Amino acid sequence: MSFFISMQNISKTFYGIKALNNVELELKYGEALCLAGQNGCGKSTLIKILSGVYQPDKGATIKIGASHYTQLTPQESIKKGIQVIYQDLSLFPNLTVAENIAIHSYQKLGWVNQKEVEEIATSAIDSIHADLPLDKEVGTLPIAQQQLVAICRALAQNAKLLIMDEPTASLTAKEVNDLLNVVNKLKSKGISIIFVSHKLNEVMKVSDSVLVLKDGNMIGKYPINEVDEKKLGFLMTGLNIQLSQLPPFNKADEPILEVKNLTKSGEYENVSFSLRKGEIISFIGLLGSGRTELCLSLFGQTKPDKGEMTLKGKAVQFKNNREAIQQGIAYVSEDRMNTGLMMNESIHHNIISTILGRISNKFNVIKDKVAYQHSQSLIDALKIKVSDSDLPVNTLSGGNAQRVSIAKWLSIRPDIIILDSPTIGVDIANKEGIFNIIKSLAEEGISVIFVTDEVEEAFYHSHRIFIMKKGQIAHHICATQTTEQELMEKVYEHHA
After folding, report:
1. Angle at 392 between CA 391 and CA 393, to 5 degrees
2. pLDDT at 49 over 60
3. What is the pTM of this model?
4. What SUPFAM superfamilies would the database entry show (predicted)?
């Protein structure tokens, strides 16, 4: 079978640094290719060259169908049927499903033929056997349905290649399976797929082949039946990552935190648990199970309707998160880009943002020397890869940005740190690095609560596991007293 796309000698240099070095990409009609590699390996650069956003260095050849190019413009790329669905989906929340799908098929000036818009949208929806409400505003839909709207919009533009960037990051297990089924339907229609994901189990399910990049170089392209998750992880990182469970937590100290029957109507109900000094506990459950809502109340961001919290032996009721911070509780947000970090501000300013009072003189002027010593000590301790701490956070990879989030809260010297989905958008090597940080914090006596929807993370990286369903704790398990398979069955029971 002939290749739909063939890219040869693809290099890209930024300010003298090679982001890509003689990479090749070949893709058949109806083939699903996973683009795999750590953050910063060149995946995004390659996608932007294929979609015409970046122009490659001289010597590149790109063949799409029967057409030959040395570089593409966005218009040429779209005309050839290449569509990119980014993580933010780029939908119009105030327009209907039908209007979003057919947005490129009608002129905004003058009047819109609503019947034609609905016909275009219905045709795209029917082609993947989806169930979408044509007249609903997209902003009111759950993220899984928004994903389908983005796919249908691409199909309405006669997509021959769909590039999907981390499409499952915010989906439940069932929604992931539904999306993977849609991908298989697209393949059966001859539509090619490039799939970017850090979740290797999904890569194995949906891909026909995998192209591995490392430091801008092509490691190789492999049929998916020739690799497993372990081999793929090694190809991406050069590391043989061996997972082992934490030893049982046997300290008999009094709990640093006790929660009894904590309830917030419509979010979580009758939640009770304890946490000891240096212990790591995880809350796992599907999206909507109440995990984040519970953590926000522990941090004083929201107020429970009833229940009790005891911190270091004293009853507490936080009016706001400032009171929680003063009592030694830190919270690393799930959404680092919007609520966790100031992305346009420097790494240094983000790290010191929680302790400005402590590093300022009596005139409220920051003591620069003390401030920079502090931020640099955390950069060193957390192994944040950065050449200059005055660079903005948005210049960092996902893994390094997450380390800055953690550094910012370690500045307050917390007794308890809550990490909400700390590895979202983080590659396999940085995931391991973040959990090594969590382990070292616990060894220093800091108590850790982390939220995850990945069974493997809870199983290998926490002492005790709390499974939440519909706002309640359904199971409380010591990690060493179960198996990964048993844990998975408990998490996903009744959600098949």
Report:
1. 120
2. yes
3. 0.71
4. P-loop containing nucleoside triphosphate hydrolases
